[in-house]
């Protein structure tokens, strides 16, 4: 690849302009054969990427990032990728059915073009970063922006996930909300931040916790590590410590994609042994499958409520509890990006 084109792609999120191609000695009549052969791919008028880069993004399901980069390069006016598009750049957990239109923010004026919308809003220096060569709203600003627009549960899922990786703090999010006090729908974002917690390691854990708390149950400890002496028995998704009651969010991932090189059968067996040992310690628990958040929710909540109202067995406790790693994942879902201030 010509170094001029390579440098342009590094600057602009893996895309380059027709002007870069001309500086690299590619004439206008040379472009069509490059497109036909698949060596190049046109993203927008006058903006290209290589066929290899396009195919890699297509396989990863991230072609939206190239589309964002192409719009940024065409606008060239200080706009930043924002809202749901920024959520994709930051690898947030996205709601299902999210539209594919590219969203940007600029302080001057609202405008729209083919496949993109530019929102008019202020952009403080702290609200803008560069991620993978793309000028994008910061992670904190992005979370607050989408929380103003998404369903509150979807917003809490995204915030919980970022909190679990240690990528943001609730204090940072609260400060960002306060900076947007008079912005549209900021109360919705404030509620999402209020409901978010460090310690939910999957969307199902977040949705289940919100359902329980929404039904009037007290807040549990999240990622509660149970020890007998120095030995870790297991880590519970939720624990009401004083009552000796736990809850587990049973998703498919722990069976279909088990960690530690275990087979699905080994994962199920290990989970059974762990559950049995919790019961042997006089802990009492309820497991929540994704389907339990619908028709079975009332019965599940009633069962947890009965357990919480029933005193634990008498006698000294044979275990100790602490929140594991402060609720943070031991291995982040999203690796820290190579980002910088814009």
Order of helices and strands: HEHHEEHHEHEEEEEHHHHHEEEHHEHEE
Q: How big a fraction of the residues is strand? A: 15-25%
What is the helix fraction of residues, given as a range? 40-55%
Unreliable residue runs: none
Tell me the span between the first and last alpha carbons.
Answer: 27 Å
What CATH first level of the largest domain would be assigned? Answer: Alpha Beta
Number of domains: 3
Strand order of the largest sheet: 13-12-11-10-14
Radius of gyration, rounded?
24 Å
CATH names the topology of the largest domain as Endonuclease, Chain A
Beta-strand segment tally: 15
Total of DSSP H or I helical runs spanning 4+ residues: 14
Q: What is the second-level CATH architecture of the largest domain?
A: 3-Layer(aba) Sandwich
| Mean pLDDT value | 93
- Class computed from helices, strands and strand pairing: alpha+beta
